[in-house]
């Protein structure tokens, strides 16, 4: 995706003075919420509930989606410390267990991201109608990827992510209904029928669950 | 854009009871702010400041964008009551004046839109980190278009719009830095060199300014 307009925001938006200039932030280590993912083309949409534990480096995803005219459901548990990823079918009580080869990436603004600006979603004209957010842009040269990230100013809660790479195309991710903390830590414990699943070979990372 | 996932939100999101169920709302009649527009394909991005006056049915757009590898700048004034649209070049002090054939559409959720749900952007875990919004989906059969609209629960301020039609492709519009009211009503008065501009023929509507 062309970055011209994103970077034009640098001049367009009101950026804080140096003293109060936002710095790349890291989200709370325990977070749960929901997200929607919409692919640029018509062939991919998904809604997921997630549980995120950066302390123990584990993520749980319960996702429903639509890809190339077919629906899919994914219930995935990624345990980075153990280097294992489970795909769980709770209805059939079956499970696949795969080696998780990528390392854990905490939910944060990359240190080398460029601040586009601080903006208000909604309106500050009346109380309770606004959310102050910081927007950041950057590139990941090894994936030829560009991203635009928006996090709340207070609390560093993710709001949205626009990601574009030749491999994935453009994807818009919106986060909502986030809560700091984990309501039920059992979501990170694989069901009994998972522990007996044979470890399958293959190169797996976060994106392979989709 | 496939609507399957959008409508799945109906079951996925927590919707208020009937008594407190959100109704399609109309934005404040006087509003100014900014918006970004990103086309699904790489060839269109734009940032605009807008002034919106539903009482007098007039809109002013100052927009900078990028389309098919070329930058563009648009300064457009749409006066629906007079049925005229000006494209202004303040640098060269030139102006084009065209007939505006479409009718004024107030900023609102269409009455026949389907409520997807009420969600929190950011997090309610701490004060000042959240924004309560309602999301709506619908179709415009005459344009074969689908849309997903998000407005703040309080105040009915636009937050985002995903629009997809065969004519436009997919477009993501994000609204920010909105203020209820108009800071400078002079933005709705065409500069002197516009009034002498010859009225050009042609079918023009809101989208023709882009």
Automatic annotation (TrEMBL), chains A, B:
Protein name per Swiss-Prot or TrEMBL: Ependymin-like 1
Protein keywords: Signal
Protein's UniProt keywords contain Membrane: no
InterPro entries linked: Ependymin
One GO CC annotation: lysosome
Signal peptide bounds: 1-20
Family the UniProt entry places it in: Belongs to the ependymin family.
SMART domains found in the cross-reference section: EPEND (SM00026)
PANTHER family membership: EPENDYMIN-RELATED, MAMMALIAN EPENDYMIN-RELATED PROTEIN 1
Any one GO molecular-function label of the UniProt entry: calcium ion binding
GO biological process: cell-matrix adhesion
Organism: Electrophorus voltai
Highest rank taxon of the organism: Eukaryota
């Amino acid at each position: 995706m062309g970055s011209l307009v994103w970077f034009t925001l640098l001049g367009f938006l009101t950026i804080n003075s140096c003293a109060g200039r936002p710095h790349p932030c890291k989200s709370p280590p325990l977070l749960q919420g929901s997200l929607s993912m919409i692919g640029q083309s018509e062939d991919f949409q998904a809604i997921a509930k997630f549980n995120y534990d950066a302390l123990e480096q584990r993520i749980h995803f319960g996702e429903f989606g639509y890809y190339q005219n077919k629906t899919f459901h994914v219930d995935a548990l990624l345990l980075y410390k153990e280097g294992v990823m489970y795909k769980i079918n709770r209805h059939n009580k079956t499970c696949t267990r795969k080696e998780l080869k990528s390392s854990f990436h905490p939910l944060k603004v990359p240190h080398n991201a460029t601040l586009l600006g601080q903006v208000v979603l909604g309106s500050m004209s009346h109380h309770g109608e606004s959310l102050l957010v910081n927007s950041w842009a950057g590139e990941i040269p090894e994936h030829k990827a560009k991203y635009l990230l928006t996090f709340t100013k207070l609390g560093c809660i993710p709001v949205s992510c626009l990601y574009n790479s030749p491999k994935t195309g453009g994807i818009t991710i919106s986060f909502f209904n986030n809560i700091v903390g984990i309501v039920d830590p059992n979501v990170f414990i694989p069901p009994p029928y998972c522990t007996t699943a044979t470890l399958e070979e293959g190169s797996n990372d976060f994106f392979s669950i989709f």
